[in-house]
Amino acid sequence: MADVNRGNRPLSPHLQVYRPQYTSVTSILTRITGNALLISALLIVWWFLAAATSKESFAVVDGLLTSWFGDLVMLLSAWGLWYHFLAGLRHLYWDTGRGLDLPTAEKLAWGVVGGSFLLTLLTILVV
């Protein structure tokens, strides 16, 4: 049946009136880092395939990945890997039914962000 009152109903709030919470931003960032890690993995596979193919193709890919742009991409990939890993641990913790209250969820979100930066810094120093 057709809804005759369609024009009279109020619209749901959308992005213009919604204030994102820190936990929702970190959830979106988890999805973004997961997709970005796929691209980074493809770059690494491209590097391995070039190494297996010829010296010339390896030189091209290696030149790209060892340039300032490649270093930046690998640095962001390391951060994305640590962030995604810690966010996954947070979700596993939530799957046990714990930490779902708002104060704990916000502390966990801050821990994921801070921990990912700290672990990235440690990775740079060790590698």
Describe the protein's architecture and organization.
With 127 residues, the chain is mostly helical. It is 76% helix and 0% strand. The model has no long low-confidence stretch (mean pLDDT 90).
- Give a count of the beta strands, DSSP E runs of length 2 or more: 0
Helix content: over 70%
What is the typical, i.e. mean, pLDDT? 90
- The coarse overall form would be extended
Q: Largest sheet, if any?
A: none
* Count of spatially separate domains: 1
The ordered H/E elements are HHHH
Secondary-structure content class? mainly alpha
Reading off the top of the CATH hierarchy, the class is best stated as: Mainly Alpha
Structure annotation, total helices: 4
Q: What is the level-2 CATH architecture name? A: Up-down Bundle
Task: Return Rg in Å.
Answer: 21 Å
Ends distance: 65 Å
Give the amount of beta strand, in percent: under 5%
CATH topology: 3 helical TM bundles of succinate and fumarate reductases
Low-confidence stretches: none
CATH superfamily, by name, is Fumarate reductase/succinate dehydrogenase, transmembrane subunit
Features:
single chain, mainly alpha, 4 helices, 0% strand
Set down the secondary structure blueprint.
Layout: H1 22-53, H2 55-65, H3 68-95, H4 102-126
Task: Please give a quick description of this structure.
With 127 residues, this protein is an all-alpha fold.
